[in-house]
Amino acid sequence: MDINPLVNSLIPSSISVGLLLSFFTYLAVAGSILPGKIVPGVTLTDGTRLHYRCNGLLLLLVLIALLGIGTQLDIVSPTIIADRGLELLSTTFVFSVLVTLLLYVVGCKSSDQNSSLKPHVTGNLIHDWWFGIQLNPQFFGIDLKFFFVRAGMMGWLLINLSILLKALKDSNLTQSMILYQIFCTLYIIDYFFYEEFMTSTWDIIAERLGFMLVFGDLVWIPYTFSIQACNLACCL
After folding, report:
1. Cβ contacts of 162 within 8 Å, gap of 6 or more
2. In the chain, at which end, N or C, are there fewer CB atoms within 10 A of the end residue's CB?
3. Residue 229 in contact with residue 181, Cβ under 8 Å?
4. Whether residue 2 has pLDDT greater than 60
5. CA-CA distance, 221 to 37, in Å (whole number)?
6. pLDDT score of 236
7. What total number of domains does the chain contain?
8. Which of 122, 189, 188, 193 is nearest to 156 (CA)?
9. Does this model's pTM top 0.90?
10. Can you tell me where the transmembrane regions are (predicted)?
11. Burial status of residue 230 (CB atoms within 10 A of its CB: 0-12, 13-18, 19 or more)
12. 157: containing domain
């Protein structure tokens, strides 16, 4: 069995890197601009509270509309995610490793004493990298923990839709695929409709941001939750 094609498809490319960075850039910029309900988070141990702009549903709808326009203008292929699924998987995994190593370094050097950024260092590199050092690290005012889980949920839907369009293109649309797409889409829309309740979940209020959460948000959610669609479309 020749595994070279599989190995080659797992190597990140400039296109997969560009797609991932474009996705993150859109979420960061549009998420800061589009209107949304400002929801106060839970009160932290030092008495402070973070505030979250819950505009995820609008952000998702605008993104889908932009992608639809881009498809009509032949700017982007509607099946590009399905066609480059393994590339995007490996690219996202590498990104997760790199960003959590950066979070580890920044956390170790932090001297902040507020609850969100106070470093919790055990001295065990693997433990601190895996579970994280800071509770709510930010990047240019963006709460990374909230950002990553939003990216993962949207990424799951984008992967599903790309696989659906590939199935349509290949005349391989089945009843099972239709039902899977409907149920997943309803679940994801429900998540973003009630996004404000995410601000009081255990992940947000108690767990520090390390590889476990970043990998879970960016890799585990979108790429494992869409395995059923891949299987139904036989696109791997």
Report:
1. 78, 79, 80, 81, 82
2. N
3. yes
4. no
5. 25
6. 43
7. 1
8. 188
9. yes
10. 15-36, 57-82, 88-106, 147-165, 177-194
11. middle
12. 4-233
Q: For residues 156 and 221, is the Cβ–Cβ distance under 8 A?
A: yes
> What does the mean pLDDT of the chain come to?
91
At residue 13, does pLDDT exceed 90?
no
What span, in angstroms and rounded, lies between the C-alpha atoms of 88 and 84? Answer: 6
Nearest to 198 by CA among 161, 158, 143: 143
Which residue type is seen at 186? L
Whether 211 contacts 130, CB under 8 Å:
yes
Lowest mean pLDDT among 106-120, 125-139, 190-204, 217-231: 106-120
Element (H, E) at 198: none
What is d(CA 142, CA 5) in angstroms, rounded to the nearest whole number?
Answer: 39
Q: Which of 209, 213, 204 is nearest to 40 (CA)?
A: 204
CA distance 24 to 140: 13
Q: What's the pLDDT tens digit per position in 76-112?
A: 999 999 999 899 999 999 999 999 999 999 998 887 7
Q: Which residues are paired to 138 by β-bridges?
A: 143
pLDDT of residue 235: 46
Write b or e for each residue in 14-25: b if 16 or more Cβ atoms lie within 10 A of its Cβ, otherwise e. Answer: eebeebbeebee
Token pair for 40? 């106060």
pLDDT (tens digit per residue) in 147-176 = 999 999 999 999 999 999 999 988 888 899
Closest by alpha carbon to 213, among 163, 156, 145, 161? 145
